[in-house]
Amino acid sequence: MFGQNKTTPKFCDLKGKVAIVTGAGKGMGEADSIKLAGAGAKVVLADIDTASCEKVAEKIKQARGECLVVKCDQSKKADVENVVAETLKKFGKIDILVNNAGIYPFEPFLQMSEENFMKVININLKGYFLMAQACAKEMVKQKSGNIVNIASVAAIIGFSGLAHYCASKGGIVAMSKAMALELAPMGIRINCIDPGSIDTPGTHTMEMDEKTREAMLAPIPMKRNGKAEEIANAVLFLASDESSYMTGSVVVVDGGWTAG
Ligand SMILES: NC(=O)c1ccc[n+]([C@@H]2O[C@H](COP(=O)([O-])OP(=O)(O)OC[C@H]3O[C@@H](n4cnc5c(N)ncnc54)[C@H](O)[C@@H]3O)[C@@H](O)[C@H]2O)c1
User: Fold this and answer.
1) Which residue, 44, 67, 132, 156, is the most exposed by fewest CB within 10 angstroms?
2) Kindly report the CA angle at 150 between 148 and 152, in degrees rounded to 5?
3) Does residue 250 contact residue 175 with C-beta atoms inside 8 Å?
């Protein structure tokens, strides 16, 4: 009978799984880490900002979760290799990677320097490649793995002042589809999430007046920004076996912004 079978597994149960989350110190990365740990995963918090990660780690430990903080600039191969090595040393395997860390500095296209263009590409796109490749090399050994790449609605629609960012996010979606084809036979799934406008420390540092903030809500049918936890819910679903027939997919979580 429904509800009476004690052996029915919990929805999106991650007990026994090991997950790495990049950019785990703040915003969506923090919410993702707490969500995955709450579902039973052991979580590695990777970020350039370890002080913020330590605060997230405290929250996870208070809720009786297990985690590890590792300093990592995901645009640097040596740092990425170190995250993988530390994860294996502490937890012995990698089941889930949430590629989340990214930057979004506004800059007019005509003034955009080659250096700044490459900085965004190196962190947002090359960083996801390095992390995904290093983790997938471990995942193939166990013939299973799950990668969730946080892209953006900027992969679907353009944004003034963010040509480098839009290029990086479009690249993430295209790369993820190619990875999904190659890695499906090895038991590894790769899916993307395209968040819309989400309240995070990153978006709060963007300088704009109240009028501009209101104008930004105009194209969003739900007339509000999303919460980091609303992205974390989608991450949990994609990271769990509940999404077992999904790979190469893009899940848009944007309050209807790009539906029109
Ligand atoms: N907030 C939004 O509205 C929004 C919308 C769509 C997509 N996104 C994407 O979601 C992701 C998270 O965004 P957020 O708003 O939570 O960001 P945030 O700025 O609030 O937090 C980002 C975290 O990433 C870390 N980080 C930055 N550079 C790093 C690097 N080189 N290596 C490792 N860690 C690094 C920062 O220290 C920080 O802890 C990003 O990829 C962003 O592009 C955000």
Assistant:
1) 156
2) 145
3) no
Whether 9 maps to a domain, the answer reads no
Catalytic residue among 104, 128, 165, 245: 165
Range of the domain at 77: 18-252
Tell whether 32 is covered by a domain: yes
**Angle value at C-alpha 135, between 120 and 76, nearest 5 degrees:** 35
> Domains in the chain: how many in total?
1
Pick from 53, 71, 152 the residue to mutate for probing ligand 1's pocket: most ligand atoms within 8 Å of its CB.
Answer: 152
Q: What angle do CA 189, 191, 195 make, to 5 degrees?
A: 160
207 occurs within a structural domain: yes
What are the pLDDT digits (tens) for 202-257?
Answer: 898 776 778 877 888 999 999 999 999 999 999 999 999 999 999 999 999 999 99
pLDDT tens by residue, 58-98: 999 999 999 999 999 999 999 999 999 999 999 999 999 99
In a domain, 155, yes or no: yes
The reported pTM is 0.97
CATH number at residue 103: 3.40.50.720
